[in-house]
Amino acid sequence: MLRLFTAGESHGKGLVGIIEGMPSNIYIDINEINKDLARRQMGYGRGDRMKIERDKIEILSGIRGGYTIGSPISFLIMNKDHENWKEFMDPILENKEDKMITKPRPGHGDLTGYLKYNFKDIRNVVERSSARETAVRVAAGSLMKQFLKNFDIEAVSHVTAIGSVKIKEAITDTELIKKADESEVRCVEAGTEKKMIDFIEEAKKHGDSVGGVFEIHIKGVPKGLGSYVHWDRKLDAKLSYGLMSVNGVKAVEIGYGFENTTKFGSKAHDEIYYDKKLGYIRTSNSAGGIEGGMSNGEVIVLRCGMKPIPTLYKPLNTVDIITKEPALATVERSDTCAVPAASIVGEMVALSIIAEEFIRKFGGDSLEEISKRWKDYI
Ligand SMILES: Cc1cc2nc3c(=O)[nH]c(=O)nc-3n(C[C@H](O)[C@H](O)[C@H](O)COP(=O)(O)O)c2cc1C
Question: Binding site for FMN: which residues?
Answer without folding.
Answer: 128-130, 247-248, 292, 307-311, 333
